[in-house]
Amino acid sequence: MKNKVFTGLIMFVVVVLLAVGFYTTNTFAKDKIVVGMARPLSGPMATIGDSAFKPIYDTWTDEVNAQGGIYVKEYGKKLPIELLIYDDKGDLGTMTRLTEKLIVKDKVDFLWPSCGTAFVFAQAPIANKHGYVLITAEGGATHVKDMLPSLPYVFVSLSFSDWYQIPVLAELLGEKGAKTAYITFRADLFGIEYSGVAGIEFPKHGIEIIGLNSVPPETKDFAPIIKKAKASGADVFCAFGYPDLVLPATGTSMALDYNPKAWIGGPAVNFGFYHTTFGPAAEGVLGFTTFACSQSKAAQTLCDKLYKGKPEEINDWWGHPLYWAGLECWKQAIEKAGTLDQKVIREVLATEKFNTVLGPTWFENGLMAKECHTGEIGQWQKGIFEVVGPTKNATAKFVYPKSIWPAPPKK
Amino acid sequence: MITTFLDIVISGLLMGGIYALIAVGLSLQYGVARVLNISHGEFIMIGAFGTYILYKTAGVNPILTLAICGPVLFLIGFFLYKTLFKILLAFSDSAEIFEGKSLLASFGLLFIIQNIAILIWGADIKSYSFLNIGVDLGGALFPANRMVTLLFAVVISMTFYLFLAFTRMGKAIRAAAQNPRIAGLMGVNINQVLALCFGFGALMASFAGGLLSMCYPITTTMGMEYTVIAIIVVVLGGLDSIVGSFIGGFLLGIVGSIVTYIEPGLALVAYYAIFIILLLVRPTGILGK
Amino acid sequence: MDITTLKSKKSLIWWTVIFTIFILLIFLPFYTQGYAVVLLISILVYVILTLSWVMFSGSTGYMSLAPAAFFGVGIYTSALIGKVFPFPITVLVGGMASFILAILVGALTLRLKGIYFAIFTFGLVMLIAYSLLFFEIQVTGTRGRFVIVMDYNTIYFYMLGIFMLLLLTTYLIKNSKYGLALRSIGQEEDAAAHTGVNVVGVKVMTFAISAFFMGAVGSVMATKLTYIDPFIAFSTTYSFMPVAMAIFGGTGSLYGPIIGAAILTYLEEILITKFAEVYMLIFGAILVAAILYLPDGLVGFIQKIWRRLMERNHVDT
Fold first, then answer.
1. Nearest C-alpha of chain C: how many angstroms from B200?
2. Helix/strand number for chain C, H first, E second
3. What is the ipTM of this complex?
C-alpha cells in the first residue's frame, strides 16, 4: 500500500516537473506587438463573445495589419499586431488563470479584455496589479465606477445604465407623457442594475413603476409575466435582460396581443438578429444604441467595413462602435506615447483626447466620457435602428406610442 | 379569479408540452438502454439548428423539417449505440457500472458534438419567428406556436405509445426494458432493440429541438440547459416510465406557470425543490415501479 | 538479512523519497518563477477535489455529483467572512460548512441508490445556486461579490497544506478498520450491515469528511477568482470534472486519481491555449476513448503492461 502512495507521489512530481519544464519563458523579438486575450470560444459565454467584441477585433486587427501595423517611435518602425487567444470556456477561474499566464509566462505586450461584466470585474484587478493597460469591451456597470479610482490601468469603453442610457430614456418617455412602467428583469448584475437605475430615474420624470419582477436565467415561460404586465395597463414595458429573455418576451407580447405604448428591451433589440427574427413587427421597439450609419461619414465608413455584404444578424448598434473606438484610442495612445511602456501609455489614455469613429473621444476617470457617445436610445423604424435619444444625436423622431404589433412575416 | 387560474393552468399545459417532448427521448434512452444521456440536449440543439437552417435558407416550413431532421438523428443515435455504447456494455461487469460509464461517455459526447456545432454554425444567437400569433380560446389568448408544440407533443407521444403497445418491435422494446436477459432468451435481438431505442431517443430530441426553435432563440451551446430540464422531468415521472415522463412534463409546466405568476424569481427554485423533494419521498417517480 | 529488515530498509528509502518530494513541492515557488505556481494551484484544486471524491465514491460505489455544492459552499464562505476573519479560520469554516451540509445531505439521501443518488446530488447543486440567486436578488439586492485577493504563493501553500492533510487522512482511513468497513459497504452493503458495520454512520461520516476538504479548497480557491456570483461558485463543471478525472486515472488506488487529475488539468491547459478552437473536441474524444479503452483507468492500464513485462522477464530468466 505504502509503495503505491510513493509511486503515486513520484509520478505526480514527474508530471509537475514536466509542467514546469514546459513553461520555460520564451522571449519575443520586437518585430510585432503581441496582444493576449482569454476569450470564451466554447461554453455558454461564447454566444456573447462571438457577436460582440470578436467581429470588432478581427476586422480592426486585419485593417491595422494591412497598413503595416502600429508605428512605435521607440523602434522606429511599424509593428504588426499578433493575437494570442486562449479559450477560457466561459469559466471565471480559467479566465483569471489564463490572464496570469498571458502576463507572467507569455509576457504579452498588451492585454485585451475578457467577455462579460463579471469577467471584467475579475480581470481588472489582475491587469492593474501587473500594470497592464486594459480597455474593457463587453461589460460595464454602475459598480465599476466605484472600482475605477483604485484601478488606474483600467478603462471602460461600453456605455451602461446610468452612463448614460436610462436618464435619456426616462427623459424621452417623460416628455411624451408616459406615466406608468412595468419592469421585468433578468436576475443578474445587468438586470438589477438597470431596474435599479430605472427606479431612480423614472420617477424624476413622473413615471411611476407599478410592477417589478426578476426572472432567473433559463426561465422558459413568459406568458404569466406578460399577462400580468398587460393587466397592469402600464404605459411602458421594460424587459431588462439578454436575448434569452428579450426574444421570447417579444414573441409572447405579440402572441398575447400586449401593446404597451413603449416596449423597451435590453441587449438583443440592438442586434441585427432582432430585426431578422421579427421583421417589420420590430417596428417601434426601443433598445440601447450608440450610433446609426446615417449619423456621420465616419459612422457610414465603419458600417461598410463591418456589415457590408454580411448577414444582417451580426449588426450590433450598441457595443460595436464603442469597442472600435476603444481600439482606436489604444492605437493612437501607443503612437502618441512612442513606446510600448504601459505606464506611459496609461498616462496618455488618461489625459489626452483621441480621434475615433465617434469623433473626439477621451476617458474621464476611467470611463469613456458620456459626451463622446453618439447615441443612447434606439428605436426600430422601417427596418433601421435609428438613434432617437439624446435629441442632439437623433437620426429620427421618437415615435410614441409605438404602433401595435403587426402580424409577423410569412414566408 | 377562476378564469385567471384556468388561464395559468392552460399556459402551464402549453409549456408542459415542450417539457414532455424534451424528456420523452431521454426517458426512452435511460428506461430501456440504461444510458443517462447527458448529451441529450446536444441532439435537441442539432434538431433546432437543422430546422433553423432549412427555414432560413430554403424556407422550409419548420413543421415539415421535423420529418427531415428526425430520421437523420435517428440514424446518428442508432449508430452511436451500435458502436460506442455496445462496446461499453460488453466491457461492463454490471448494469450499475454500465450506467456510470455510459453517463461519462455521453458527457464526452457532449463536448465533441458541441465543438463540431460551434465550428460549423458559430456560437452566436439564431432566432426566427414562426406562428407568433395569438389564438383566442374562450376569451383568453394563447400563443399559436405553443399550441402547435403541444399538439405535436401529444400526437408524437401517442403514436409512440401505440407503437410500443401494439407492434412486435414495441413489445420487444418493452420486454427489453423489463428484463434484458430474459428478453434475450426469448429470441429478442437485444442489441438491435437497445440501439433502436437510443435512436428513437435521438429522434424525439430532434423533434423537441425543431419545435422549440419556433419559440426560443437557439445557440450551439444551449444543450446543457435542456438536458437539465429533461432530467428533472424524467425523475418526476419515474426514470423508467415513458408515460410518467410525459405526465411529469405537464406537471412541471403547470407548477412552473403557477409559481411564475406568483413570483417569477422563484420559478427555477421551485423546479429543483420539487425535484429534490420527490427524489427523497418517492425516488421512483410518480409512475415508477 | 531477514525479510523484516529488508522491508524496513525499503520503507526507509520510500520515506526519504516522499520527504524529498514534499520538500521540492514546498520550495517550488522559490526556485521557479511566475506561472508554474499558478498552474500548479489549478492542478492541486482538481487533485484535491478528485481525491476527496474518490474517498467517498470510489470505495462505496455511490456516484456523487455534489463536489460543486461543497466547493461552492467553501467559495461563498470565503466571500462572506474572508474580510472579517483571519484566513486560516475562513478556510476552516469553509470546510466545516461543507461538512455540516454533507451530514444533512448524507442523512437524507441514504435511501437513494445508484443513479438516483447521482441525480439527487446534481439537483442539489442547482437548487443551492438558484436559491442563493433568489436570496441575493431579493434580500441583499445584488448579485456577485468581491473576494479578498491574496498572492499566489500563499494560495499555493494553503493548497499544498490541504493536499498533504487529505493524503494523510486518506491513507489513515484506508489502513484502518474504518476503511475496511467502507470497502465492505462498496462490495455488499447488506452483508456489511449484517457483520455489525454501522453502515449509516460510516457512509455519512466519510461523505462529510470528503466534503470538508472540498469546502476548504473552495474557500482558498475563492481568493483566486477575485469576483464570484452564485453561478460562478456553483458551476457543475466542478461536479463532473472530478468524476471524469478519477475514472481517467483509475479509482482502484490512491495515486490513480492524483495522476488522473494532474494529467487532465495539464492537458486541458495545453488544449485551451494551443488548440483553443478544437479544445472540446479533443478533450471529449480523450474522455470517450479513456472510458472505452481504459476500464481500470490509466494507472490500471500501466499496471497491466508492467505486470505483463514482468511476466515476460520471468519467462526469459
1. 22
2. 15, 2
3. 0.86
